[in-house]
């Protein structure tokens, strides 16, 4: 949802001269949780750390030997939450969501003994070198991390500075961004509602005092069927809005917007592969990031620099493809050329395609398995004639294409449903970054092929490669 022309008052009206607050646009549905002046509507739970308002921010201060303390408000189910936080580097803090407090009348006697203790999912606030900021911990209950943080977010936290957190909780899905960088994305069915809480962590008597500050705290409740608008990383734009197929063209027999995802389905009767094509431009040099989930029998692909071929059938696109293959690890993430040179690089291969169009294996990566039916982060980076693919931060392909006749430097972007067994493919958080058009092509003398390099095994002649041991 785009910003309106009006702006709301920010939670920070008076700041230190060296700091600037961020003014949020008055988007429809947003409600401030903190008015910048008082703690009206908030309640302290868990411990005896203190909270006050100072310079338009909530300031939490440690108390020696206090257990973890939380400033709590509301009861929320599905929502989008944004705030800024600044924390002393020596202090650990967090943002509770869908949280609760144990009561004296709890049916579990163990929980009755913990009456007054706050429990529930917590988005971590911690100094940069921990690499855990915006990761999610189950506070006061299971006592463990609920997810792995994305590698690119591990150093996103800024010590001794304000940090912007965005949290989206909907259904059983939890997501977070820190300073615009996606950090967490996982599912957990345990809680479906609860309060928001701002934590001051307990300290020992020989530590502190420390402080943590919050400002510009606002929330937007989501309906059960409303998708939170995807927010891209810096420099990227969202090319799928999470609601409908605006900007895309493909047959509604196969493609729809479902559960906030670009969804493709095939019933097993396809005679040829079908595509849905992005209609808002061509891609040349770019970086693409997207979350992908494929069914156990599924086969799909991210088509780029493609050519539309209506002469071959409805919604046919040829060209480069980052494969999405459920049941063969050495195909999942490979570089394939649809209706062209076919397999250019298996997953786990570094490849140079010579000037005559022959691909040669010049190096390898460890081969990993990325289970079907789960969400995985796919990344495609194409610069001139240099192509690279990743899944969940792990490199799958690194290829240099020296074949001037066979290669293509610009074309359409599309995604695929494949012939074969019934399948379902879903894409979400679809982000594109356009790179300069004039990037230098790698010449043959800069991409040597070792004399002992093997040829890339042709399709039909390639034996499945075993996953490397961890």
Automatic annotation (TrEMBL):
Domain 3-keto-alpha-glucoside-1,2-lyase/3-keto-2-hydroxy-glucal hydratase: start-end pairs: 29-220, 235-433
Ribonucleoprotein as UniProt keyword: no
Alphabetical keyword list: Signal
Record Gene3D superfamilies: Exo-inulinase, domain 1
A Gene Ontology molecular function term of the record: hydrolase activity
Region feature (Disordered): 443-470
Keyword hit for Glycosyltransferase: no
Signal peptide: 1-25
A Pfam cross-reference name: 3keto-disac_hyd
Low complexity compositional bias, start-end: 443-458
Name of the protein described by the UniProt record: 3-keto-alpha-glucoside-1,2-lyase/3-keto-2-hydroxy-glucal hydratase domain-containing protein
Lineage: Bacteria, Pseudomonadati, Planctomycetota, Planctomycetia, Isosphaerales
């Amino acid at each position: 949802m785009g910003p309106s022309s009006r702006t709301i008052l920010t939670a920070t009206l008076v700041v230190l001269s060296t700091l600037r607050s961020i003014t949020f646009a008055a988007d429809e549905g947003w409600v401030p949780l903190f008015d910048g002046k008082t703690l009206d509507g908030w309640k302290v739970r868990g411990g005896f750390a203190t909270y006050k308002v100072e310079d338009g921010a909530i300031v939490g201060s440690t108390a020696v030997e206090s257990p973890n303390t939380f400033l709590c408000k509301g009861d929320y189910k599905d929502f989008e939450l944004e705030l800024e936080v600044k924390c002393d580097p020596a202090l650990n803090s967090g943002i509770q969501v869908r949280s609760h407090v144990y009561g004296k009348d709890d049916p579990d006697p163990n929980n009755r003994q913990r009456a007054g203790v706050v429990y529930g999912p917590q988005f971590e606030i911690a100094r940069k070198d921990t690499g855990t900021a915006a990761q999610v911990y189950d506070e006061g209950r299971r006592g463990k991390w609920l997810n792995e943080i994305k590698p690119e977010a591990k150093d996103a936290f800024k010590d001794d500075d304000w940090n912007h957190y965005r949290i989206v909780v909907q259904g059983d899905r939890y997501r977070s961004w820190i300073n615009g960088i996606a950090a967490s994305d996982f599912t957990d069915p345990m809680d479906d509602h609860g309060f928001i809480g701002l934590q001051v962590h307990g300290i020992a008597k020989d530590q502190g005092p420390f402080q943590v500050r919050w400002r510009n705290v606002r929330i937007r409740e989501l309906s059960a069927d409303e998708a939170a608008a995807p927010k891209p990383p810096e420099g990227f734009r969202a090319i799928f809005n999470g609601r409908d197929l605006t900007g895309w063209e493909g047959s509604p027999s196969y493609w729809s917007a479902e559960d906030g995802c670009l969804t493709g389905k095939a019933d097993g009767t396809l005679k040829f592969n079908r595509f849905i094509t992005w209609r808002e431009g061509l891609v040349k040099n770019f970086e693409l990031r997207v979350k992908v989930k494929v069914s156990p029998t599924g086969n799909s692909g991210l088509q780029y620099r493609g050519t539309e071929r209506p002469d071959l059938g409805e919604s046919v696109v040829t060209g480069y493809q980052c494969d999405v293959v459920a049941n063969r690890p050495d195909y999942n993430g490979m570089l394939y050329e649809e209706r062209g040179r076919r397999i250019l690089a298996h997953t786990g291969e570094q490849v140079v395609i010579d000037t005559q169009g022959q691909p040669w294996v010049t190096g390898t990566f460890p081969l990993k398995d990325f289970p079907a039916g789960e969400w995985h982060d796919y990344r495609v980076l194409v610069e001139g004639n240099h192509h690279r693919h990743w899944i969940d931060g792990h490199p799958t392909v690194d290829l240099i294409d020296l074949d001037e006749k066979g290669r293509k430097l610009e074309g359409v972007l599309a995604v695929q449903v494949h012939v074969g067994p019934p399948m379902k493919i879903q894409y979400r958080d679809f982000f594109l970054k356009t790179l300069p058009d004039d990037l230098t092509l790698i010449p043959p003398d800069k991409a040597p092929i070792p004399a002992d390099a093997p040829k890339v095994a042709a399709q039909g002649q390639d034996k499945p490669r075993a996953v490397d041991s961890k």
